[in-house]
Amino acid sequence: LFYKVKDRKCDFDVDITIEIVKNLNNFDTFIIFSGDGDFAPAIKYFRRVGKNVIIVSDDKKLGKEIDQLVFPYRPFITFADKLDIWG
Q1: Is the separation of the CB atoms in 27 and 52 below 8 Å?
Q2: Residue by residue, what is the 3-state secondary structure of the chain?
Q3: What is the pLDDT of residues 11-49, one digit of tens each?
Q4: Fewest beta carbons within 10 Å, which of 36, 37, 56, 67?
Q5: From the centroid of its chain, how far is CA 11?
Q6: Of 57, 63, 60, 65, which Cα lies nearest the Cα of 82?
Q7: How far apart are the first and last CA of the chain?
Q8: What percent of the chain has pLDDT over 90?
Q9: Is 43 left (phi over 0), alpha (psi -120 to 50) or beta?
Q10: Is the model more confident about 39 or about 87?
Q11: 10-45 as b/e, with b when 16 or more CB fall inside 10 Å?
């Protein structure tokens, strides 16, 4: 039997943003393991309220909306292949 799989947009970016907002007063730094450009408005807000934001992404998947953020809204960006967490 073959079933057609329906494409569905996942809204993990919304879920992650909601969790950060709920914990905004509990942490100074948030690490987002995604380069999805949909995070750009949230990142700007988090930076505006004085939070540090670290983006960990594949260098080929960093959204232009994030890449184009400038000081004081630009998060610290690092690329997953540059992390030596298994060392």
Answers
A1: no
A2: CCCCCCCCCCCHHHHHHHHHHHCCCCCCEEEECCCCHHHHHHHHHHHHCCCEEEEEECCCCCCHHHHCCCCCCCCEEEEHHHCCCCC
A3: 778 888 999 999 999 999 999 999 999 999 999 999 999
A4: 67
A5: 13
A6: 57
A7: 46
A8: 63
A9: alpha
A10: 39
A11: eeeeeebbeebeeeeeeeeebebebbbbbbbebbbb
Q: Please report where in the chains the tokens 């934001």 appear, as a residue.
A: 53
Burial of 4 (0-12, 13-18, 19+ CB in 10 A): exposed
d(CA 41, CA 44): 5
Tokens 């993990």 map to which residue? 12
CA dist 37 and 63 (Å) reads 4
